[in-house]
């Protein structure tokens, strides 16, 4: 049994070519690329908010700023919860409500909420790992897709030769021509290379989808409320039982019990 969430919009297809042309790898590409663009911004904002809250916590006159720092981290986490809709349903969330009046009550609710620390873990601590994962997956994936499109643009490129000259076409390998490589300077060579890259991209589509599932699993693990250990017991208690209806209870007779009447105590 896989520990990764499948993702409602990341169905797996057993045929590599069908997988390549299905929406799953393209949704995964958008999800990973979105984190490459928004992740550094969210990391910088969340880190600045946490550091500012840690500094301001030393001053008793800046309680409102500490509460604001926690609110900024929450907003950053909400962005990541909403981005999950690209590959799955939006991630639910639950935060503690302030039970005491005033800024002190809000400060206690924000800074002691376990959800706040889970948000910081995802946005700050896991950012380097997720950035590396997204960059590697997208680099391989987009490189193979570029190879598939070789027939569209190889004729417009000039590659440099080892002796300093130039030659029309694309060289797959060392660009200076000193190492192992293949020249793509004719249409048959471009079509052959494109077919090879197409097969490789079909199998690489599984990798990019797997990378999106890894990130989605981490997001669900940290950004959604933890499961209630008593949820099953509460559900059983909420469901109607065999004693909930008086008609089905063995202690409630379904017909009146015969008894003495007003005429001499005998039944008619």
Automatic annotation (TrEMBL):
The keyword Nuclease does not apply. Keywords: Membrane, Transmembrane, Transmembrane helix. It holds the Pfam family Sensor. The chain crosses the membrane at residues 41-73, 120-144, 189-214. The keyword Transmembrane helix applies. InterPro entries: Put_sensor_dom. Residues 240-252 have a biased composition (Low complexity). Residues 31-223 form the Putative sensor domain. Residues 239-268 are annotated as: Disordered. This is Putative sensor domain-containing protein. It comes from Streptomyces glaucosporus. The lineage of its organism: Bacteria, Bacillati, Actinomycetota, Actinomycetes, Kitasatosporales.
